[in-house]
């Protein structure tokens, strides 16, 4: 079942959504609604060219990486030891999200449009979204961004201008979270890239218990 949202700040029970995870249509991208959504594992995802209303998803099988389980391949270890790149956190959120948007803006199903970019920038301004940047000298060559609530990170998008830059960003994020009590990285969707780095599926009810831990 797909629910129509109005101005009320609420979401239906995610268990009642469609098999593909589609739960609701409508609402807005305010910080308050986004925080409520992510606290239940619900996220906006829609092609802004073809949908006038926002689509909200909450799959019942969640593809995640536990920070302690991130896989670092031999080639990545070699890359990291060479010191070609350095990694920072929250040093250039605006440029990271701009690069992520530009990378896919010409794709038919592009979802990171102007409204979504504005929404995540507002979340970042209020401390609820973060970025990881990969630099070669003073050039930004890769990175990722996502939503941060409690001890969990909800990944949204990543980009690479050089081979393995986004992998390097994800590894540094996982190591940082593992060292600082982080619980889970929500990858939203499975990709071979993320599976190779330790991603796996867990049931939504188990996922919910983790993301709602204090």
Automatic annotation (TrEMBL):
Localization, per the record, is: Cytoplasm
Q: Which organism is it from?
A: Hoylesella loescheii DSM 19665 = JCM 12249 = ATCC 15930
Cellular component (GO) terms are: cytoplasm
What's its catalytic activity?
L-phenylalanyl-tRNA(Phe) + an N-terminal L-alpha-aminoacyl-[protein] = an N-terminal L-phenylalanyl-L-alpha-aminoacyl-[protein] + tRNA(Phe); N-terminal L-lysyl-[protein] + L-leucyl-tRNA(Leu) = N-terminal L-leucyl-L-lysyl-[protein] + tRNA(Leu) + H(+); N-terminal L-arginyl-[protein] + L-leucyl-tRNA(Leu) = N-terminal L-leucyl-L-arginyl-[protein] + tRNA(Leu) + H(+)
Say what the protein does. Functions in the N-end rule pathway of protein degradation where it conjugates Leu, Phe and, less efficiently, Met from aminoacyl-tRNAs to the N-termini of proteins containing an N-terminal arginine or lysine.
State the HAMAP family in the record. Leu_Phe_trans
NCBIfam families for this protein: aat
**UniProt EC number:** 2.3.2.6
**UniProt cross-references to PANTHER family, sorted A to Z:** LEUCYL/PHENYLALANYL-TRNA--PROTEIN TRANSFERASE, LEUCYL_PHENYLALANYL-TRNA--PROTEIN TRANSFERASE
Coiled coil spans: none
**What top-tier enzyme class does this entry carry?**
transferase
UniProt keywords (A-Z) are: Acyltransferase, Cytoplasm, Transferase
Keyword Acyltransferase included in the entry's annotation = yes
GO BP annotations of the record are: protein catabolic process
Q: What is this protein called?
A: Leucyl/phenylalanyl-tRNA--protein transferase
Q: Which domain of life is it from?
A: Bacteria
Instruction: Supply the gene name.
Output: aat
Report the InterPro entries cross-referenced here.
Acyl_CoA_acyltransferase (IPR016181), Leu/Phe-tRNA_Trfase (IPR004616), Leu/Phe-tRNA_Trfase_C (IPR042203), Leu/Phe-tRNA_Trfase_N (IPR042221)
Please list the GO terms describing molecular function: leucyl-tRNA--protein transferase activity
